[in-house]
Amino acid sequence: MCGIVGYIGYRKAQEVLLQGLHRLEYRGYDSAGIAVVKEDGTLNIYKAKGKVSNLETIMADKEVEGSIGIGHTRWATHGEPNDKNAHPHSSQSQSLAMVHNGTIENYHILKKALIKHGYTFSTETDTEVLVQLIEYIKATNKCNLFDAVREALLQVVGAYAIAVIEKGNPDTIIVARKSSPLVIGIGENETFIASDASPIVGFTDKVVYLKENEMAVISRNRPLQISSIADNRPSKLDIQRLRVSVEQLEKGGYDTFMLKEIFEQPETLKDCIRGRIVEEGKRVILSGVIENRERFIHANRIVIVACGTSWHAALIGKRVIQEMCQLPVEVEYASEFRYGNPFITDQDIVIAISQSGETADTLAAIQLAKNKGAFVYGICNVVGASIPRNTDSGTYIHVGPEIGVASTKAFTGQVTVLTLLALCMGQIRQTVQPEKVEEIAQALLKMPDTIRETLKLNDDIRRLAKTFTYAHNFLYLGRGYNYPTALEGALKLKEISYIHAEGYPAAEMKHGPIALIDAEMPSVIIAPSDSLYDKIVGNVQQIKSRGGSVVAIVNRGNTAMAQLADYCLKIPEVPECLTPIVIAIPLQLLAYYIAIYKGRDVDRPRNLAKSVTVE
Ligand code: M6R
Fold it and tell me: How far is Cα 436 from Cα 14, in angstroms, rounded to an integer?
């Protein structure tokens, strides 16, 4: 939700900022802007409604001098997306410029007080209130920018990552964070700031993740100084190495990031499994589980919290953990858990799943679970993000940067890690037969090839998708392990094509949704040859006898379904608990091509953002 970038050094700031904003655009694309201080101290701000390319268009004929600046790409919270509400925001005297990711909850109160002091406001944003407050404090206390920012932040209730620069000062950026991420990249005679490491990649691999309630002075001439907002006590610099390459952040010949990420899945799953299945497929090791062996042996219950696609992966995780570990597992939306007064004890393990590792609701759920004494285990993709830093232990899915807003390779990575977790835990709890572990582990080792085979459906699905651009509604049905897969298929379609789609447990169809079936309402039926296959055939018959069209996803050996369904997509056979990983592929491709035929921007669907750092 909103991306922040900043630069101070010897390069042309404008270029570094615009490139950085492109890389952060997945976080929001309602508007974009940059502010640059020239060597003579002049402060210039440029902003435009819409995507970063719009900002580039308005800047095309402008040569912006200056090697210090800040930039922002916005996902609107306060105030509609327009030029005026775009960041950077400036203070009344135009002496300060600020970018902000987060929400200032008490901005109404602060605004009223500032109005009494003669301040006027030209936008509806909470950010403008904060930058005006900083200016007011700086003027009344006659202090420097750092002290003014710090004093202002002490008055603020809410979440923020901010960067502030000032007219007449081409040497300093002040940054701060509370509940919104901020990374500082340390190069040779240059420093970068960003909401995540992507804008920094290619410039330096040395980064410092600003911790909760910390602020920093980024200065041209002095080493980086970090301190706590509360008492200004200096913090120790914890410099980490970035392990992301520029190639990983580019489209690599594909039309979109989403298609690239769908096609990357054979490799990403290989990375996800690497080193975790040992002894020729007989043993599964996840260090986060092994190191906390006693916790996992004596756990009474597991509660999984997540949002969106990660929540769908959690539902699959519930089944596989219950099956392998003989342990009750509950799954909650993080947003419901945090306000639901959940019953959690120190005998519980709470698993938090998040691709970005920054989802505000999931972070709040983690905090609540910790306060109640639970052991919290994170399953995350982005290395060094807030969730892995705030959990007791965990596992990365290691699928590489996911840029497309619709989650694809992260979903298959999450289900893979949850399966590994279930097997690893089942072994140490002695609740799973060694033969079972071996069967699933062997199939996981072959999964990259299985996915490669499944991706061969691409051309068939592209043709099929064209026939469905007329649809206004879709039904996705699955059972058992694939009820959550149906939910995920429906979410993929709605978020990128804007077609309404509902996922349902197939047997529940007769309790209501069947009323919707007619010639205008296609259904996607997930029907691998598993323990529930025969039951699903009955659902297909019910839909066909009411005039609905059916796309069935079945195993390769299945010849019978072709007599019933309008279209069959055939996938390789895998053990039942792994079917969601394979079935996700045709569902992702179907949603993708329908959206493309409808002319949608699949990487940046309307109203969405990749990482949801607000409530
Ligand atoms: O980064 P997270 O996994 O915590 O994100 C959770 C959801 O916001 C995310 O999965 C969202 O639903 C995706 N757009 C789905 O494709």
Answer: 57
H or E segment at 130? Answer: helix 126-141
Distance, in Å, from the CA atom of 194 to the CA atom of 382, rounded to the nearest integer, reads 14
Query: Is 17 in a helix, a strand, or coil?
Result: helix
Cα-to-chain-centroid distance, residue 189: 32
Q: Indicate which atom in ligand 1 lies nearest the CA of residue 382.
A: 1
Threshold 0.85, pTM exceeds: no
Please tell me the distance between residue 538's alpha carbon and the centre of ligand 1 in angstroms.
33
Task: Report the relative pairing of strands 283-284 and 277-278 from DSSP bridges.
Answer: antiparallel
Strands 550-555 and 500-505: unpaired
> In whole angstroms, what is the distance from residue 500 CA to residue 517 CA?
14
Angstrom distance (rounded) from CA 277 to CA 424: 10
Nearest-5° Cα angle at 396, 392 to 398: 170
Closest CA to 256 of 606, 601, 611: 601
Which of 492, 500, 416, 419 minimizes the C-alpha distance to 461? 492
Mutate to test the pocket of ligand 1, among 359, 361, 366 (most ligand atoms within 8 A of CB): 359
Distance 412 CA to ligand 1 centre (A): 13
Q: What count of Cα atoms within 13 Å lies in the side-chain half-sphere of residue 114? A: 25
| pLDDT tens digits, one per residue of 454-473 | 999 999 999 999 999 899 99
Answer whether 543's CB lies under 8 Å from 516's CB: no
Nearest atom in ligand 1 to the alpha carbon of residue 306 is: 4
DSSP 55-116: HHHHHTT-----SEEEEEEE--SSS-SSTTTPSSEE-TTS-EEEEEEEEETTHHHHHHHHHH
What pLDDT, in 10s, does the model give residues 195-240?
989 899 999 999 999 999 999 999 998 999 999 999 999 999 999 9
- As given in the structure block, the two tokens for residue 72 are 């922002």
- For 212-239, give the DSSP string: TTEEEEEESSS--EEEETTT--B-----
On whether the CB atoms of residues 155 and 133 are closer than 8 A, the answer is yes
CA–centroid distance, 355 to ligand 1, in Å, is 7
